[in-house]
Design goal:
Shape: elongated
Oligomer: single chain
Number of strands: 12
Radius of gyration: 26 Å
Bound molecules: S-adenosylmethionine
Number of domains: 2
Strand order of the largest sheet: 1-8-9-5-4-2-3
CATH class of the largest domain: Alpha Beta
Length: about 300
């Protein structure tokens, strides 16, 4: 087996595919992955410019390529991972997912959005859901004992990181997570105002198929929780949040009226919750008394 660390850096992209095809993953990366896993047969279900097929030809590995693009340079085009079936299975199924809608592939190769195109899905939860479905299909196409390897990226929008490896439903157990270093980062060359951390990597998740029927997957759950209603609320958390909500300064009466509605104040064991609020204010270095019966956040606590 070839050497492979959990961080894979290929400054020279290697031969295979078309370097001009947006988001192509470079022949050297594919070569290193195949050098480690040594599959006798490969399938790429989002083959794009045909990088995987080219590398497999060079290595003498049988490879079936599929892509939604009708003019696919390798294998079968016009093929939808979510509804079509491959001709046969493989020991390793590879897939390089779109970067959400950063590049809308159907617009690139077809001139207009194709509703089947995963990169045409603007809604992040829907995009993730469809990627999870695609991965569940791939796990059924790989031979028992074989691997599914999926490369996925992340994007930052309005200060939030949309990270596929964190959010995507995983259809089976992850045996490896490789970080692929990006050498021509998408975000580097762009003009941004203010500070930002450039995204310089992608994640390659590897799943193994161990059984015919049952797969131990993991589906991240989307949630929004409210300090006022949560069983996880702490006293410091409650008092700080209430003071912020009240504009950074409040009378004890206003604070009591605010916190009285919180779940933490309504628990039977917290019958003396007002005393707890006073104690939190007195002991917490984040709060200071303005005058008797009136408290505020210390100056450095109002905004991060
Ligand atoms: C990141 S690119 C793959 C690039 C490829 N690894 C290369 O080196 O050229 C993602 C590909 O997914 C394809 N795609 C998008 N939706 C698809 C679908 N529903 N079924 C099959 N392929 C799809 C796009 O046409 C695009 O070529």
């Amino acid at each position: 087996m070839g050497d492979l660390g959990s961080v894979v850096s290929c400054p020279v992209r290697g031969t295979g595919g078309d370097a001009r095809y947006p988001g192509n993953w470079g022949g050297e990366f594919v070569r290193r992955v195949l050098g480690y896993f040594e599959p006798a047969s490969v399938m790429d279900v989002m083959a794009g410019s045909g990088t995987t097929g080219d590398v497999c030809s060079q290595l003498g590995i049988r490879c079936d390529c599929y892509d939604l693009r009708p003019d696919a340079p390798q294998g079968r085009g016009g093929w939808d991972v979510l509804s079509d079936e491959p001709e046969r299975g493989a020991q390793m199924v590879l897939c390089h997912l779109p970067y959400a809608d950063m590049y809308v592939y159907s617009e690139i190769w077809g001139g207009k959005r194709d509703p089947r195109d995963l990169s045409a899905m603007r809604d992040w939860p829907r995009f993730l859901d469809q990627c999870g479905k695609a991965m569940a299909r791939m796990l059924q196409w790989v031979d028992i004992g074989g691997y599914v390897g999926v490369l996925m990226g992340s994007i930052r929008r309005r200060g939030i990181l949309y990270d596929m490896a964190l959010d995507v439903p995983r259809p089976g157990p992850v045996t490896h997570r490789l970080v692929k270093v990006q050498h021509n980062e998408r975000s580097r060359g762009r003009a941004y105002s203010g500070k930002f951390i450039a995204i310089e990597h992608e994640d390659f998740l590897v799943f193994r198929r161990d059984a015919p029927y049952v797969f131990a997957g993991c589906v991240p759950k989307r949630t929004e929780w409210d300090v006022r209603r949560s069983p996880r609320t702490t006293w410091r958390g409650a008092v700080y949040a209430a003071l912020v909500a009240l504009g950074g300064e409040a009378t004890m009466a206003a604070l009591y009226a605010e916190i009285e509605q919180f779940a933490i104040a309504q628990r039977p064991e917290n019958a003396h919750w007002r005393a707890k609020v006073r104690q939190t204010l007195q002991l917490g270095a984040d709060f200071e008394a303005v005058e008797r019966g009136r408290w505020r956040l210390r100056g450095d606590k109002t905004a991060a």
